[in-house]
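I can't quite decide. Please look over this sequence plus structure tokens:

:::
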Amino acid sequence: MKQFLPFFFLLFSLLSASIYGADNVVLITFDGLRWQEVFSGIDENLATHQDYSPQSDRLMQRFWNGSANGRAEALLPFIHQTVFAQGSYAGDRRDNSCAAVSNDWYFSYPGYSEILTGVVNPSIDSNSKVPNTEATFLELLESNSLYSERTAAFASWDVFPFIFNVERSAVHVNAFSTEANPADNHEIFLNKLQNDIPPPWSTVRNDAFTHQYALSYLRREKPKVLFISYGETDDFAHDGKYDEYIFAANRTDRFIKEIWSTLQSIDQYRDNTVLFITVDHGRGEEPLQSWMHHSSLQATTRANSGLAQYTEGVVGSEATWFAVMGPGVARNGQIQTDAGCITSNRIAATLMEFLGEDYRDYNPAMGAKLIKEVEQLQKDLASGKANSFTGPIYDQKGNVIVAAGETADDGLLAGMSVYVKGVEGDIPQ
């Protein structure tokens, strides 16, 4: 018999220390892809807007669906049908699931540094090409013989060599530029092709090149820790091209599917790799034109002064999302977060934990791994401070069956015959 179990059981199985054990981690980022599109698909107001979507007919034909879930799956089929289905995710703010940056700026360099280092450094307050004083978790792992020369990063944006501080780090970084030391004819060809096909932007290359360089390296060198950052979504958004932003998001979903298929075709990675997907920042929603931008109020008065008309900052820019699957990740679906948010500074520590490494041995200043709340909840349950059946608890139709702050009594539990909104699991027979 199948039942739907409350969130507490979800969290226990999501990040229980006893089930960690992947030998490889792949971290992939979209740049600035809003949670709204991830969970609801294309925005009709933007998709039919003459200025933002000259290809509106094509956009609507490919991605429009009467339901939000249908639109979301049409846009990101691999993420929804595979990653969401086989793992856990957060960030749908319509449904009590919150993910966010913890830096004060809500743009790319601070966002990526937070994700990769687990540290929010207040001095990282612009997108300037300044070497990062913080070490990414890839660089930290390079000090361990298990990972030495087994880490790699590929990115479209030309600031990533500074985020990784290539002058100091031993991490292999290919970002924006062609491969300096092509290893084979394929990479020689990619170098020529990238030089022959200029991108629309001066600081971001076409994601197809980032993808192909990453695939080539993955197949040949087989790194244990791989980072890939796709950038086109953010740049098309800044250009006010919603149609191209959507096409880029869909293309990136296809790229990620190819990465995963490649991983599953190689013995080292098959059923032995955690895939983690996230984003460096959110974007605006209201007023409509704010979808092009992202910036905190603090940033609009400094690094992004061109957005000073947004007197509260670009509202929603802090909102992120993530999805994860692989060994040690249960098929829990959406994580509900109640009043709090899961912050990006905890990703690095969590990925190290999946590898069986304690982040505190490398940099105790990192944001705590996601298991922190699990460990505390276990203690609270054991002491009686917390109860697994404290509301709000909903049935599968969304009706409240236990109100917020109340606890289900024995009579309710004994006679419960409804499916509870949450995660599907097996009741022991």
Q: What stands out?
A: The chain is about 35% helix and 15% strand. The chain has two domains: 20-373, 389-426. The CA atoms of residues 18 and 389 lie 24 Å apart.
